[in-house]
């Protein structure tokens, strides 16, 4: 609910501080005193467009600050958190400054805000009736939201939104793949060819390095065998050989070591050397005998290396990285061939999602149509109580299966009204009379009040064109609305003002060089005088005061 408003240098207001309270609050005063200026100021701080004409003459800027208690408004809390504009307590502060040059700035809880943000937040806090630009019922979305709230369609809406989200995701995927189908298939064909090519190569780990070593060995096999054979002969087979020479030296030292033991280490080393020479000679012999001089093998290895290097150049990678490249190609091919890229499978899923969405949207539409009949009948009855005898209200819910899929269903919802007997139903937004529109809005609120959760309602002269008992009905209904929310009502009728929980009087203050607007919170005695003025005009008699006191007693 609105708790406090501060206005400075706005229109003809110099400075104004106003504390607002729960329940119904009446705003009264002489014609031209500036009652609507207060509502205009609230409208501006909720995102209305402004220009330099709103700044009081002679001032540099106009300032409007509105404090709102959001304790019972969870949607506003969620919105503020999403915008990172949450405050430190349960009070939300909206501020708007308009310069004399027409420039405007705004803040929400001290954070800079634009007009769109002001409007989005304001629509969750306040509903102003009687001013077309602030009348939420003039908006298609608001009409749908009110009908859904009245019908308690939260679960059906959630189901429809989820079905729509699933459909939308699949629809976008199918559309994308359909437009890219040729490129997609070409990519698959290329990857399949590359995979087959690399699979045919069948390169094993470390094979490239091993083949290089084998090629080098085969290409030099003759020289390697000759060197090994020559080494074997020199070490063991020739006469004299190194092995036989070591043998004779070892024999001689064995004789002399008996004479001098200091020769023992040398004898041991020579004995070990002879053994190693024999082993080396055996290895060289075996190597020479086992060395393959197969030209066919040499040619195969050379061709194999050429094939490997050719594919490595083709894929712009090193030969040893070709197995990794094959694994990557196979992985991508598996992904492209999976369900996410299977156009036929996705189209079948899309058909199922479409059917599911249509089913949910149809259930939602049926619930809306039933609620529309109930709400239409209730509002039509309320219109009779509010002085619109013969008036009729109707909600048309048109479910068109050819409509574009939306998260909120496939219905076209229109609020229509006939204000007088014999007149055809017309869209609510085309109702000519502002007073009729306000009373129709009041009638809708009377029926849907238990469903609509806006914390503050403002009615601007909803009593236009009515009087007597009808005005009393309007006042009682406004007071009823004020039992569970805040209602601000600008009125000229004593029957309405007397029903309010609080009463403010707007006055015009005339000075020597300027005119300003003031506002006074009336005491009980002052309320009697104000209601008496509204009843009797300039001449207020004791009888008029008595009637005013009686109306206030009855109203409270």
TrEMBL record:
Keyword annotations from UniProtKB, A to Z: ATP-binding, DNA damage, DNA repair, Nucleotide-binding
Residues of the RecF/RecN/SMC N-terminal domain: 1-510
Superkingdom: Bacteria
Alphabetized InterPro entries for the sequence: DNA_recomb/repair_RecN, P-loop_NTPase, RecF/RecN/SMC_N
Gene3D superfamilies xrefs: 6.10.140.1080, P-loop containing nucleotide triphosphate hydrolases (3.40.50.300)
CC per GO annotation: bacterial nucleoid
Short name of one Pfam family: SMC_N
Entry annotated with the keyword Phosphoprotein: no
Residues in coiled coil: none
GO molecular function, one term: ATP binding
One GO term (biological process): DNA recombination
Function (record text): May be involved in recombinational repair of damaged DNA.
Family stated for the protein in its record: Belongs to the RecN family.
Name the record gives this protein: DNA repair protein RecN
Organism, scientific name: Thiothrix caldifontis
High-level lineage: Bacteria, Pseudomonadati, Pseudomonadota, Gammaproteobacteria, Thiotrichales
């Amino acid at each position: 609910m609105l708790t406090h408003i501060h206005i400075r240098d706005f229109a003809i207001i110099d400075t104004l501080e106003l504390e607002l309270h729960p329940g119904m609050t009446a705003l009264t005063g002489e014609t031209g005193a500036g009652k609507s200026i207060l509502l205009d100021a609230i409208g501006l701080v909720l995102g209305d467009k402004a220009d330099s004409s709103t700044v009081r003459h002679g001032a540099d800027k106009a300032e409007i600050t509105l404090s709102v208690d959001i304790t019972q408004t969870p949607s506003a809390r969620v919105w503020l958190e999403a915008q990172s504009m949450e405050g430190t307590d349960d009070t939300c502060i909206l501020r708007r400054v308009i310069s004399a040059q027409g420039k405007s700035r705004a803040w929400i809880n001290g954070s800079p805000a634009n007009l769109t943000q002001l409007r989005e937040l304001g629509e969750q806090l306040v509903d102003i009736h009687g001013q077309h630009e602030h009348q939420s019922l003039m908006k298609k979305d608001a009409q749908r939201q009110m009908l859904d709230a009245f019908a308690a369609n939260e679960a059906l809406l959630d189901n429809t939104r989820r079905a729509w989200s699933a459909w939308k995701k699949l629809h976008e995927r199918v559309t994308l793949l359909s437009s890219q189908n040729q490129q997609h298939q070409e990519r698959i064909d290329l990857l399949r060819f590359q995979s087959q090519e690399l699979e045919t190569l069948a390169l094993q780990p470390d094979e490239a390095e091993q083949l290089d070593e084998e090629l080098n060995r085969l290409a030099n096999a003759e020289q390697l065998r000759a060197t090994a054979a020559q080494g074997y002969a020199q070490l063991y087979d020739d006469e004299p050989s190194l092995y036989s020479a070591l043998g004779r030296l070892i024999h001689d030292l064995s004789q002399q070591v008996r004479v001098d033991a200091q020769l023992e280490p040398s004898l041991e080393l020579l004995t070990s050397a002879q053994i190693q020479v024999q082993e080396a000679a055996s290895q060289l012999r075996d190597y020479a005998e086992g060395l393959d001089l197969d030209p066919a093998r040499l040619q195969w290895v050379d061709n194999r290396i050429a094939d490997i290097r050719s594919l490595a150049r083709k894929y712009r990678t090193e030969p040893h990285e070709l197995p990794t490249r094959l694994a990557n190609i196979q992985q991508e091919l598996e992904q492209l061939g999976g369900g996410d890229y299977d156009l036929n499978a996705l189209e079948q899923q899309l058909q199922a999602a479409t059917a599911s969405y249509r089913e949910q949207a149809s259930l939602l539409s049926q619930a809306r149509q039933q609620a529309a009949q109930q709400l239409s009948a209730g509002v039509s009855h309320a219109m009779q109580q509010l002085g619109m005898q013969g008036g009729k209200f109707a909600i048309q819910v048109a479910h068109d299966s050819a409509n574009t899929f939306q998260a909120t269903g496939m219905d076209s919802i229109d609020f229509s009204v006939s204000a007088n007997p014999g007149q055809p139903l017309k869209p609510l937004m085309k109702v000519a009379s502002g007073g009729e529109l306000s009373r129709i809005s009041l009638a809708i609120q009377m029926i849907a009040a238990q469903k609509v959760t806006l914390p503050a309602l403002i009615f601007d002269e909803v009593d236009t064109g009515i009087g007597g008992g009808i005005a009393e009905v309007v006042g009682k209904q406004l007071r009823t609305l004020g039992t569970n929310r805040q209602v601000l009502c600008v009125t000229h009728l004593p029957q309405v003002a007397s029903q309010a929980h609080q009463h403010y009087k707007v006055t015009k203050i005339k000075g020597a060089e300027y005119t300003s607007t003031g506002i006074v919170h009336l005491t009980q005695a002052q309320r009697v005088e104000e209601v008496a003025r509204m009843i009797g005009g300039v001449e207020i008699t004791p009888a008029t005061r008595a009637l005013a006191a009686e109306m206030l007693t009855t109203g409270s």
